[in-house]
């Protein structure tokens, strides 16, 4: 697809870019290459391809979420420098 100078200037304006003449020429080439690549992708026959989120099969690698008893509260708080109402007490860090 042919990209015009006006289209490049319009995109540059939207992006708030001040391009030199050389940059406009290079941007025209780059945009034509990008649009050409998109045209190649659009031309692919993908009607029989099943949509996927991953290109390879992937299984859940996480363990099952199983409820287990936690550590004893007294044991946890034994080494706490400060505690209040059975909880850790820490200095205020955000005003």
Word description of this protein:
The protein is mainly alpha-helical and 95 residues long. The chain has a domain of 38 residues: Glu-tRNAGln amidotransferase C subunit, N-terminal domain (Histone, subunit A). The chain contains three helices and two strands, in the order αααββ.
Quick structural gist:
This protein is mostly helical. The protein has helices at residues 5-14, 21-42, 73-77; strands at 83-84, 87-88. The protein has a domain at 5-42: Histone, subunit A, CATH 1.10.20.60.
What tags apply to this protein structure?
elongated, 95 residues, 39% helix, mainly alpha, Histone, subunit A, two-stranded antiparallel sheet, 3 helices
> Using DSSP, what is the number of strands?
2
Q: CATH class of the domain at 5-42, please?
A: Mainly Alpha
Please tell me the CATH architecture of the domain at 5-42 by its name: Orthogonal Bundle
CATH topology of the domain at 5-42: Histone, subunit A
Strand content: under 5%
Q: What best-fitting shape do the alpha-carbon axes yield?
A: elongated
User: What's the rounded overall pLDDT mean?
Assistant: 90
Tell me the Rg in angstroms: 30 Å
Arrangement of strands in the largest sheet? 1-2
Tell me the distance between the termini. Answer: 58 Å
CATH superfamily of the domain at 5-42: Glu-tRNAGln amidotransferase C subunit, N-terminal domain
Order of helices and strands: HHHEE
> Helicity, in percent?
25-40%
How many alpha or pi helices?
3
Sheet of most strands: 2 strands, antiparallel
What would you call the structural class?
Answer: mainly alpha
